[in-house]
Amino acid sequence: MAFDNQLNRADLDQLKGPAIVEFGANWCGYCQAAQSIIAAAAAKYPNVKHIKIEDGKGQRLGRTYSVKLWPTLVFLKDGVEVSRLVRPTQIAMVTDAINMINISED
């Protein structure tokens, strides 16, 4: 799992279009278990940005979204949170949330 920890809240607030922001950690078992589900769902929507943010002690970005459990997926449209999922267990959960940000499959 590759993380982008160079972004801050202002960067995410200024995003244009749809995006999934995934908060988690490499060592997290729940994160590892959800990776295939998240990847399969995201693959259906290549025009949706998928940003992975490493969360944990000393990492403040997750706190600005009130992240408490991993993985937490925050679905943004033009930088505004539309929905979120915590510890998704099914592809349909993720695709339904992506559809809430008004994206059609390519």
Describe this entry's structure for a reader:
This protein has a four-stranded mixed sheet, covered by helices on one side. 31% of the residues lie in helices and 25% in strands. Helix 2 packs across helix 4. The longest helix is centred in the middle third of the chain and has 15 residues, at 29-43. It has one domain: Glutaredoxin (3-Layer(aba) Sandwich). 25% of the residues are buried. It contains four helices and four strands. By secondary structure, it is of the alpha+beta class. Helix 2 links the parallel strand 1 (18-24) and strand 2.
Task: Output the keywords.
106 residues; alpha+beta; Glutaredoxin; globular; 4-stranded mixed beta sheet
Furnish the topology, listing elements before pairings.
Elements lengths: L8 H5 L4 E7 L4 H15 L5 E6 L6 H4 L7 E6 L2 E7 L4 H9 L7
Parallel strand pairs: 1-2
Antiparallel strand pairs: 1-3, 3-4
Helix pairs in contact: 2-4
